[in-house]
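Structure ticket #2291
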Amino acid sequence: MKKKMKKNVMALLAAFVLLCAFLTGCTEVDQVSNNISKEADNFNVTRKLTVLNARTDTILLELTGTFSLQNNSENELEVIIETAEGKYQKDLAYLNDYTMYVVEDISGSDVDKYHYEINFLPEWGVKVTHED
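Resolution: structure written out below.
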């Protein structure tokens, strides 16, 4: 009975995922973009970050390597850098009206456009993963 219930839950979740993709207009490029972002945030893509003063054209920071980045609520660019296997450091760059940044994908990304994973209530251990 428990196995059948789990199958029903999985089928329902898969149907929900397909319905959401249909309703939100998820396209191939959306899926590829999402997968590339995940790979980069998991330190699997070599990228180059350049922060510059747009008013003076002065480069303030350059970083090449495997890193994850996000803008925080303090108007800072948070960069988590993988410096060695299992070693990381965090750097911050303050962003204002005159600073901007560009991130380039140096190594290219090998991602599967058909792979996705959705976690519903992770504490239940219910995960929907699709790989071709």
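Closing remark: Residues 59 and 113 are 35 Å apart (CA to CA).
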